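User: Please predict structures.

Assistant: First:
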Amino acid sequence: MLHPLAGRKLPRTLRAHNAARLAAVWPEGVKSADYAQLVARIDTGPLHCGDRIEVFHAGADAFAAVQKAIEEAETEVLVETYILKDDDTGHGLLNLLARAVQRGVKVCVLADAAGSWSTKRKFWRQMENHGIETRLFNPLIGRFRDLLLRDHRKIIVVDRRIAFTGGMNISNEYGSSISVEGGTVWRDSHVRLERSSAWEMAVVFNEGWVRAGGIPLRLTSYQASSAEPPRIMVLDSRSGRGHQETASILAVTMAAARQRLWITNAYFAPHPGVLQGMCRAARLGVDVRLLLPGKSDMPIVRRAGHGSYATLLASGVRIFEYQPAMLHAKTLLADNFVSMIGSSNLDYRSYYFNAECNVLILDAETGDGMAKTFTDDLSHCVEITRSAWSEGHG
């Protein structure tokens, strides 16, 4: 079943502010056994152990892995995405899925109606004509109060054994091998999971599928047998479920960082509590760095994030803006041990209205890889210094 349950009231001791106070006193921080125990209490979901992980920071690599998994699918392919465009990448996926149906594979596609608003009806009809079951989440002509509630997840599950999630939607600019906008593609991150965490992704997909009018999947229980690293927790949320828990786990992770807290985020307009958590960590000597877009498809959000720069810089947070292309990744790294990869931005939409999916990974090897990518990205950034910012915005 889903974790946490809908309607659950997070105990006061586990809410962001109080949980962060608990984490602040652990000498070993995120590497302490207390960290894993606390995040499990907050989310109530399982920590999957021994699953295989592969992280992608280039769209061409991620799409190649997705293609291979779908080509080898035997029983089922589930696709949930915010944006599915009828461009070359979208048609490439359509052809892959159509061939899977011909082999007898059940295929379900769920796309958000707002995110995929530009996709023509002809494309959806082509999917249905090929035997692909399709649903649009919260159509734009419907109940007004539902218009703010969007499905921002990016999930692909194959045979409930392999899953992909992260920041990449399905369109050319999100990183297919097709070059766009002057020869560059957007910089994003995605992750491939195998074994029990992939099974849980199917449970998450089923929630959105049913809410969009799809027939519920037949889900059986899955018991992981391994006790080996890495440890993975699926952090999924929607309006009315899971947002408080995700915010609390973010607060705990920031409070438990002891050496470094490196955050990459595409749409940065943080809640005051998140801002305070980053500033507090920096004042305590943690190397806090923010990697943010130097250019954005949502300039108003970028300008909103600028409103917090003075406070962050005054506390010792280092801010870098990525220059070569649009930065769309949503990741976090604490002490090269805890990594978070997913669809959530540090803005109000992600933490109040959107359905989101992130994975929390407790693993030093994955953390080292994330650190290398972050360092590589910094070589393509301009650092925003306190003095320069004061001069330009004083």
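Second:
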Amino acid sequence: MSGLAAADPPGLRFSWRALPPATAGLPGTGGRIRAAPDDFRVEEVPAYLPQGSGSHLYLLVEKRDLTTRDLVAALVAEGLQESQVGVAGLKDKSAVTVQWLSLPRRFESAAEALQALPGVRVLERAYHRNKLGIGHLRGNRFVVTVRDVDGGGAEAERRAREVLAALARAGVPNYFGPQRFGRFGTNAVDGLRVLRGERVPGGHRLKRFFVSALQSLIVNELLAERLRRGLFAAVITGDWARKHDTGGVFEVEDGAAETPRAERLEISATLPLYGRRVRVSEGEAGELERGVLARHGLRWSDFGARRGDRRASRVLLEDTELTPFDGALRVAFTLPKGSYATVVLRELMKVDVDAPLAKPAAPAGEAPGEAPGDLGGSLGDAS
């Protein structure tokens, strides 16, 4: 029998207020982002570069006001199958983004369709032996302009440097950002409906995405609980910890003994994206996990149709740069794939960055579900 409750549990809509920042004791800069497309720039950091020969054409593409799926659609219109187009990650619309795409070399002429799109520039062309795959990247480099900061440029710069230094010492909380939960922040609600067997909008692909949003919301709640309990820079008995240098994972048998390594940012706890290969942890970590599941009337076995994975509770902030100009700040940083720039910006600004819109009323007799825009897109998701 499923552990699902009969009615929607509260707290399934994304809200920044439910997610404590790691730098809560430091004031933010305030301000706003995305005043213009050039104010938010994302550039992939590839896992490898094309070797110069092979059966696939690689294109380094800069785009404005287009999603990655818009680029793929332009290639499909030239005769390719969607499955023949390779991308390492999906990028959203409201930014200038630079990413690699691949297509079979025999369709090389289709590349001209990208160059013809308004807002697109093909920066490089090269060949490689295999198709580019999802996740074939190290991360993303972000360059973001924050305008209308509080207290003038000098004060905002001082605050920003204090926050960035604190994040460099303790790591960035690896929350899933608002993009993961849809325009109205309610994709996790539809994920719960999928698990209950209720009707939701979209086909099989969207149903999987909605359940993924529910998994992500549980990770966010677990991480928020650790922050509230003072466990952000610690590990506890039963945790599965990840080594930041090698990626290796091990079970923590003695939290007190291993916590000094966590304080030095050598290791971090991982949090469960539940599925058949990921069960509730043992010990103190397991108690925390069961408590969050129970809050929503869930059990780990409700996610048995998914494979499951573990997500690091913290990520390292790398290569930070801060440049003040004309009462604004330009901040640059690099994050590993799967992490959200909006989380860093929320720490920096202490503003609900890209907060979901208010949920509109659903027509009578219809489920109020929503379809996400660019699934997993990366104005904050370095995936």
